[in-house]
Design brief:
Chain lengths: 291, 208
């Protein structure tokens, strides 16, 4: 098993300093929808200028380089313990190189570890085994604290919102979450929604669904329709980029369904900021590629 | 576009209205969650006894902050080994977390403004009227872009809070912001919040 530490450093650099093309394209479309001279348009223009500067200078798009969330699909026989060591070593190097901000703070003793490692849970690494002949893939999402803080979980039924245990109820609570978030989560945002599960895995799934591309729809037609409806209805709220008011509050919505207990009906909403930093690296034999 | 050289006078601050873009130049200090809690407990409410270099830093802040602004920012800083600090990425963090402290901190240090993102609440808005002060909104996530307007890092206090939470003294040139809360009681954020709530109520009333 080869050492991939340097390749993972490069992977982290790309994730933190360059926005995926599908996100950038969608932001460019959003600029055109805002009135010339408006604060909303100015905000989006600044955002896009920032993306270009970050790419050119290899500096973080956002100073909050977020929680590093890794999803690793490893071929049968690979050591997850060694992969974990490589990822953690790479994160320390990437922090030294200023691609990442030291972001792991001990919540009890209020101490920043200084190197982005914190106990066993920071960074977050999820492993899945694939066939021995398949490629190793590592996906990384950097999720900032501002948007993480406006995420929300609802237990249905919710009387205040008149939300029952069905897709109509899901629609209501998701719209409520977007309205409550205002511009705090760095709108325009991307919504990851999980329906079902327990409190813990429901939130995890609401993030996992954000690894999908912009515009990718759930294969279930009812959920796909709800994804599109939520994006368009959220955009009638008028919150706009940065909460300055405007046409684009949400860029895309992604929904996933889970099984739940008969007693529970959770809807978890993860809000991703416009700085939607996610990338994938693939290792097959000697070949390492980044997308 | 209006330019303001810090420190700013009360007249300059009162002339600012919600919606106006401004370019700020001069010296400012970063401070966020740990800094606000520390200032409040140690110097304003005095529920915690000063420790270590607290009093010394306080004296420095009393010289630096009057007429100036505090920037809600947790930067990415290069040169930590050599102490030749340079801001690499320095966008605003969400301000609302400082709502319990901000108005008191503004009054105590005679701060003329706050830079952050997402806006703040009623208590800070009242503080803006009384001090007088304004809330300057920077573009969230525009970290590399904003870092270019940071010309020099003049120093750092309380580095033990961690790089993001420390108080960094920086010199900026043409730092781009928009006034979203002014000293006349107007807040862009409360307007957008009320309007969006009305739309939400209409949406919730619609059948699926």
């Amino acid at each position: 098993m080869r050492d991939l530490t340097n390749e993972i450093v490069e992977f982290i650099r790309r994730t933190s300093t360059d926005l995926p093309a599908d996100v950038e394209t969608r932001l460019r479309t959003a600029v055109e929808k805002e009135a010339p001279g408006s604060a909303a348009r100015g905000a989006l223009e600044t955002v896009l200028k920032n993306v270009e500067i970050s790419r050119q200078n290899s500096t973080p798009i956002c100073q909050d380089t977020g929680t590093p969330i890794f999803y690793v699909h490893y071929p049968e026989g690979w050591s997850t313990r060694r992969l974990r060591e490589m990822i953690r070593a790479a994160l320390v190097i990437a922090t030294k190189k200023s691609y990442m901000r030291p972001n792991a703070v001990d919540a009890v003793y209020d101490k920043n570890s200084g190197n982005n490692l914190g106990g066993e849970d920071f960074p977050y690494i999820h492993f899945e085994e694939v066939d021995a002949e398949a490629a190793l893939t590592i996906e990384l999402m950097l999720k900032g604290g501002g948007c993480e803080n406006v995420g929300a979980q609802y237990s249905l039924p919710n009387n205040a919102l008149g939300a029952g245990r069905d897709l109509a109820g899901v629609r209501k609570v998701v719209l409520d979450a977007v309205q409550k978030a205002q511009g705090q989560g760095c709108a325009p945002g991307i919504l990851g929604v999980a329906i079902g599960g327990d409190r813990g895995n429901s939130y995890a799934k609401s993030k996992e669904v954000l690894f999908g591309k912009i515009g990718e729809r759930n294969p279930d037609p009812a959920l796909a329709a709800l994804e599109e409806r939520l994006t368009s209805e959220a955009n009638t709220l008028g919150i706009g980029p940065m909460g300055f008011g405007g046409q684009t509050t949400v860029i895309d919505t992604k929904i996933t369904g889970m099984h739940r207990l008969p007693a529970s009906y959770f809807v978890s909403v993860s809000y991703m900021c416009w700085a939607y930093r996610r990338r994938k690296m693939t290792v097959l034999g000697e070949q390492v590629s980044y997308e | 576009m209006r330019k303001i050289q810090l420190p700013a006078s009360d007249e300059e601050i009162r002339a600012l209205r919600v919606g106006e873009p401004v370019l700020l130049s001069g010296v400012m200090v970063t401070g966020r969650d740990a800094a606000h809690k520390w200032m409040m407990e140690t110097f304003i409410k005095k529920t915690r006894a000063p420790q270590g270099d607290d009093l010394q830093v306080y004296e420095e802040l009393r010289k630096l902050l009057p007429g100036n602004v505090i920037y809600h920012c947790g930067p990415v800083v290069a040169g930590l080994d050599t102490k030749e600090y340079r801001f690499v990425a320095a966008g605003p963090t969400t301000s609302i977390r400082e709502e319990p402290y901000q108005a008191d901190v503004m009054k105590h240090f005679n701060l003329k403004g706050v830079i952050g993102k997402g806006g703040m609440g009623a208590k800070t808005l009242k503080g803006c009227q009384e001090t007088p002060g304004v809330y300057f909104h920077a573009i969230g996530g525009a970290a590399s872009y904003i870092a270019q307007s940071v010309k020099k890092v003049l120093g750092v206090y309380k580095l033990e809070f961690g790089v993001p939470e420390a108080l960094w003294v920086i010199e900026v040139q043409d730092f781009p912001v928009v006034v979203t809360m002014d000293s006349h009681g107007d807040s862009q954020h409360s307007v957008i919040e009320a309007q969006s709530k009305q739309v939400l109520d209409e949406l919730l009333a619609q059948p699926y």
